[in-house]
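Appendix B. Extra example for self-study. Work through it before the problem class; the solution is given directly after the inputs so you can check yourself.
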Amino acid sequence: MVAGAQTHRLANGGVIDRSTSLSFRFDGKTLLGFQGDTLASALVANGVKLVGRSFKYHRPRGILTAGSEEPNALVELRTGARREANTKATTAELYEGLEAASQNRWPSLNFDVMSVNQLFAPIFVAGFYYKTFMWPAKFWETIYEPAIRRAAGLGRAAGVSDPDHYDKAWAHCDVVIAGSGPTGLAAALAAGRSGARVILCEEDFVLGGRLLADGGTIDGLPAAEWVARTVAELEAMPDVRIMTRTTLFGVYDGGTYGAIERVNDHLPVPPEHQVRQRLWRIVAKRCVVAAGSIERPIVFAGNDTPGVMMASAMRSYINRYAAAPARRIALFTNNEDGWRTAETAIAAGLQVAAVIDARPDVSPAHRSLASKAGFPVLHGSVSGVDGGKNGVRKISVALTGGARAEAEADGLAVSGGWNPAVGLTSYHRGRPKWRDDIAAFVPDGAPPGMIAAGAANGAFGLGACLREGFEAGAVAARDAGRSGNIGSMPVADDEAFSLTPLWHVAGKGKAFVDQQHDVTASDVELAQREGFESVEHLKRYTTLGMATDQGKTSNVAGLAIMAAVTGKSIPETGTTIYRPPYVPVAIGAFAGHHRDENFHATRLTPSHQWAAEQGAVFVDTGLWKRAQWYPRAGEKDWLESVTREVKAVRSGVGFCDVSTLGKIDVHGPDAGAFLDRVYINAFSSLAVGKARYGLMLREDGIVYDDGTTSRLAEDHYFLTTTTAKAGLVMQHLEFCRQVLFPELDVQLTSVSDQWAQFSIAGPKTRDLLKEIVDPAEDLSNEGFPFMGAREVKLRGGLKARLFRISFSGEMAFEISVPARYGEAMARNLMIAGKPFGVTPYGTEALGVMRIEKGHVAGPELNGTTTAGDLGLGKMMSTKKDFIGRVMAGREALVAPDRQVVVGIKPTDKARRLRSGAHIIPKGETPGPGNDQGYVTSVCFSPVLDQWIGLGLVERGRERIGEIVRAHDPLRGEDYDVELCNSVFYDPDGGRQRG
Amino acid sequence: MRIICPYCGERELGEFTYLGDAKPQRPAADAGEDAVYDYVYLRDNIAGVMSEHWYHGGGCRAWLKVTRNTLTHEISAVEPAAGVGAAKVGA
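Solution. Structure tokens for the complete assembly:
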């Protein structure tokens, strides 16, 4: 084929820009098309008939439709990271440099090795996989599935990350309209004129719907002129928004609609800073479904031959794109509308080979058309197609009465009538109802606020579409509270309607119902014979309607065939449940910007910038990035860095940013009483200027969270939570305050982001603090004792909160300054601490020191442990009620054989202890029956010079000194450990009080 | 789904957190274990109209009592929990 030949482009007409020629490649061949083409129309214009190979049998396939219902013409669009599989050539807009490749063929589309599958077709019937690959089970993963995956399937995914951006957006309006055909435009006119805020969504890139292909006369104007005038009027309305390339794909509760806008799919690459697609959530008071209808095929042998095309699609290619799908066209129809394709073909100078009409009568007008144009009208049905990958050659016709006839043609147009697009109206589990007069399902009710109009409602005539659309638009606007003058209704004549239902023509050879999934009429009959009569079973057994087109051209034919073989009526047979989305929507569009580093928000501590300058290694802790350790030159691994940090703190002074802790100000005369009810221990008795460790339970008696709470004034407490639970504890406390204890006069304020907080720890802490805090502040043991808490003035006048609390077990303070001073505080601590060898430490060193001290943390507060399990049972007050008190007393929660926190160390000092290892008594065979717990937290203890840990072990505290096995099947380890006191370091706490 | 928060107006579902049945009342301190057990574990989960607790964590942090049809998501009433501070705000 010569580039630029466009052998099948018509000389005149079409909604294309012939002055803008576009070069594109299909399977490596360079071809030309025009601006305004789809990939499919450009292929048609170039005489390309063979576009892909089918899913199961690798049969040659062409283009069946001209819209989003296309089952066959699926291509891989673009290359490299932007390659997108299963893109419909019928909706892909042509652009300069477009590259597309056919799918499911090897080595080439013309010569496909796997088409031998056709020879085995008798065994590839419905349920083939279920029946054949049942055993041996292990063969499934290793042999069958990989082989089937190579043979079946469609396009290939890009296999690399999508380089484009996707967006998500909200829109609110009075009336959203799906579709811009005559119905949708009329609805928009009425709603817009009434003053309603209107959003008109059109999935195509040009407005007009079927008017683009079928024309007509509206208000005395040619359809194209009427569309132009109407669009101009709508565009002049400030509250009407027209969104092309936008498919309304779903309806959700509360009048929320999903729409996908293909913002830049029509360009090779989105312009800089622009998204590829945008997912809209449209909140509308009313919705008018003007989504039109989909022409349905008739199932007959050879109906998948390239060159067999829907009659309306042929009109689209000829009239809208000025591209001739064939030069000598045969038409197979069972209805009046199909004849328009014959009229269109003749008007375009193409030949009509024959019209095969399944109806008993043909109108006199059509008879005279046939005799004038010189083609026969054959009463009967198409029983076979002679042709192959290069297209149709000859049509076999079974004439009414039994005789046979043939017609030579290079294209066959098929019209089996029209199915209203009942998707949107049925997405709330609505079932459409059958209308005998049009032999089609129409909406039977709709989700709240939704009205179907025009062809989507079974009104196929142009006049009826305008009427229903205009009325629906007016009603929708009025219901939304708009009452402006809607002016006059656009008018047009209605076409004659006549249809004799015909679904399936019996004949020799494969007759396809679902072309995308290669489901044949005999598969449907087989399903019935094997008992899969229900349409839901039929769907799942044969996969009918389960492909990317969701059976838009196949579902009704499939259930009509099922109805015929079961002897039931079509409405008795029923439809499957309709579910959104109406068209495939990329997962990327649902994700929007929430991917990669933006998958979730990132929270940085006030000293983050400073820590980054220090070369800190950061760890994700929820949304936070926390400094994990600060490596120094020459350190060979993290352990060396962490060990240095721990030793520096224990021997000198270090500091750590602990701003990620949840911080809540509790104010009010009942603040103490409130805290008494949420913590197991008492806080109303806490003296002003003192801090206390608190533990809170869930109402079921399990530990929820812990932290230190300080009393800064009679009616003001400052509460801290763990980093992980900060938000949840706030929510819990608000629940307690608002719902459980409304009588208490107390207010909560989250101040987590307001305060930068640092832990300063080590024997030289006071020396360092004296350089920071105003000299007038007394930091001595008497002036600021252990668990003291109060506001202090810093050098320079800044007010800070100082807490003498210790997580490390060393002499320590925590200091809070307003968050904006956090970074300066870190820098000042470094400067002021230089003489004392101050060392910043990260979360790892923090963890090492807490394990050495036996403090519990996340691995122990794991949602299964009680206060008693943690060794904190004595904190539970018996003098007051608190959340979780009653349930904590349940038999199982106070059972003596519970797994409780205990220290663990390997008997071999050189061995590394691993968390997750299970504790098994010595001499027992590991198993669920004698599993006595597991190691929860481990660290290398610089103080003890060995690995140590905490664990939850049955009766652990009664077994100090016992040697047990640490069994770790995951890592293939098994070694002896000693159960010991959980406080490894400074058990009497002298250092932190000193 | 959207909830009309009495303080913030109509807001999207993502701003709210669901808790569940709003009917059970926390028993008095001396009510005994059975009463607390019922309160903690025996919750209704109605296919139909239900009174539920929702938390407007993405907004004003009010706990709301929402009357919702769990089949259709239709919300017929939204009121703040007793202790939100409505009286203080309204005063």
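Self-check: Chain B touches chain A at residues 1-2, 12, 17, 19, 26, 29, 32-33, 36-37, 39-41, 53, 55, 57, 61-63, 72-74, 80-85 (CB under 8 Å). If your reasoning did not lead you there, revisit section 3.
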